[in-house]
Amino acid sequence: MTELERLTITLTPELSQTIKTAVLDGDYASASEVIREALRDWKVRRELRQEELAALKTDIEQALSEVAAGQLSEFNRERIVERARKLLAARKRAG
């Protein structure tokens, strides 16, 4: 059996009620199950955001290298800003 660790958390009344409702509705057997699923989902979203940020950093480094080598004929600031805005919007929706 997996070893479990007990933690105490503090929630807003709204979040607490959401958890209680999920259990009362029969979607989950316990509040702990709700929290565990929420944390698994959070972990996946966090990993995806980190991957997206790493890819963005790689793109920026590549572009800077191309600029330094004189290989970039056009620098499209608007495209870069738009991509960053889309990543931020996706992050807000996921959060």
Automatic annotation (TrEMBL):
Name assigned to this protein: Antitoxin ParD1/3/4
Keywords: Toxin-antitoxin system
Transmembrane segment boundaries: none
Pfam hit, one: ParD_antitoxin
GO biological process: regulation of DNA-templated transcription
Family label: Belongs to the ParD antitoxin family.
Database matches in InterPro entries: ParD (IPR022789), ParD_sf (IPR038296), Ribbon_hlx_hlx (IPR010985)
SUPFAM superfamilies: Ribbon-helix-helix (SSF47598)
